[in-house]
Specification:
CATH architecture: 3-Layer(aba) Sandwich
CATH superfamily: NAD(P)-binding Rossmann-like Domain
Order of helices and strands: EHEHEHEHEHEHE
Structural class: alpha/beta
Number of helices: 6
Oligomer: single chain
CATH topology: Rossmann fold
Radius of gyration: 16 Å
Number of strands: 7
Shape: globular
Distance between the termini: 24 Å
Largest sheet: 7 strands, parallel
């Protein structure tokens, strides 16, 4: 059973990222949720949510800007350097490298820490032929998620000795900016499903690719 504590969610301004932050803040075993957001002034729903939940702290974080990342890491590190970061949810971009010291600190104290990379079923090169991904946008998106999955397996191998679990999780079709309004699942439903998978992670799962019901997906 995975141990929650201090958590950072990137891409938290809306959609699935926002729903993950809200769902995490409602969990008793969660201590703090850092919600990474590129432009805080353009995230009124996140700011409003942070005022309702004392566990949530909004952090200015542009995952494509090195200085923004460094400042965000310093801000988080200042508050939790002794405890570390127990879970990093990469809903936008990849933030592992600068967060590794905090993840290793948490793993050293709690015997486990985790990285969850939000992927997609179109990132599975094994099943790509059976999916309707013929548009250029979907092909490029799938390529980016396949690369993300590759990174997950590499991180899992490298950080095994430090007791850091790394997995990719593909959300179901969700009503978001990317998923559109026709999707059957709400962001809150998908967030709950993803976190249910995370809560049951063990070291034997590190490096794997799951859907949001916990079923293994082929890379």
């Amino acid at each position: 059973m995975f141990i929650f504590g201090n958590i950072l969610v990137t891409g938290a301004s809306r959609g699935l990222g926002l729903a993950l932050v809200k769902t995490l803040a409602d969990m008793d075993q969660v201590e703090r949720v850092y919600a990474g957001c590129r432009r805080i002034e353009e995230a009124p729903d996140l700011v409003r949510l942070s005022k309702l939940h004392h566990k949530i702290k909004v952090v200015k974080l542009d995952v494509q800007n090195d200085l923004s990342i460094q400042l965000a890491v310093k801000e988080i590190e200042f508050e939790i350097h002794d405890e570390g970061l127990h879970l990093l949810v990469n809903n936008a971009g990849i933030l592992e490298m600068l967060m590794l010291p905090l993840l290793r600190t948490a793993a050293g104290k709690k015997k486990v820490a985790g990285v969850v990379n939000i992927s997609s079923s179109v990132g599975s090169t094994s099943t790509i032929r059976s999916q309707n991904v013929l548009s250029t946008g979907n092909i490029v998106y799938g390529m980016s998620k396949a690369a993300l999955n590759n990174f997950t397996t590499s991180l899992a191998s490298i950080e095994k000795k430090n007791r850091i679990i790394a997995v990719s999780i593909a959300p179901s079709w969700t009503k978001t900016k990317i998923g559109g309004h026709s999707a059957p699942s709400s962001p809150n439903e998908t967030a709950t499903a993803i976190l249910s998978v995370v809560s049951n992670l063990t070291f034997k799962d590190s490096g794997k690719f799951f859907d949001d019901t916990g079923i293994d997906l082929p890379y």
